[in-house]
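ok so heres the complex, two chains, lmk if somethin looks off
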Amino acid sequence: MNSACPIGDPASKRLTILVVEDQILARMALADELRRHGFNVAEAKNADEALSIFHSGFAVQLAIIDLDTPRFQESVHLAATIRAEYPAVKLLAASGQGSQDVLREQGSQDDLRETVDAFFSKPYDLEQLIAMIESLLEQ
Amino acid sequence: MRMSISRQLRDCGYAVIEAANADEALVVLQHGEIKVDIVLTDIEMPGSMDGFALSTWVRKNHPGIEVILAGTLSRAVDAAIRLCQSGPFPGAYERQSLLGLIKQLMATRAARRMIAGWRGLTNKMFKSGRSR
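and the predicted structre for the whole thing:
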């Protein structure tokens, strides 16, 4: 892999958001809404795909990691890996109530709250999500 | 690799849905309110179907959809170029940028991905129940 030549358009001023979500309809819906708001969006189905995108040199400014997946421990670990290896990337973790309960039981919620920049409950309120993203990216 | 081809297709005017495999593609294709015009698919993919089986399914169930099988990265790039030349914004197609893309893609590891493209109306699904 040639990380000296990142894939993507260096002339583009659009910021890039990575959406990590294993349900295709939810992933495409969220990605499309973000594109409508002017962001460049990369999509990953799981942690492996997400890390491939980072390791390929593609520039990502913010990642949204959905925790509502049977492999949510991988997602929690993904957040920690991104924070450690790509500290400039803003991290937003999202889950419905069920995942939050499980995280709390496993003691992961506090770790996650320290790792990510923002925690978002689903179902998404799109306007609030966009506002949060814009606020994080302005920092 | 899916990402770079998707991006080029979007830049030349297509609306692109990215599916990681045939199973995800079927979820999209079976959704009653998502209109797909073109399916661009790899041949070898993880999951229950390869590209040939997906192609057969599409031709049987959605005969109006154009199916493009691209078993290698270079074929996928060729397909993207052809689609852009005949796409919604042929004027936006710049040979130079696509040649640059080809160089980048050839220099990196090939991936197995599938892309479905669609034009027209879509109905978005959000867990908040919002739809249009």
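quick notes: The first strand of chain A starts at residue 16 and ends at 20. thats all i got rn
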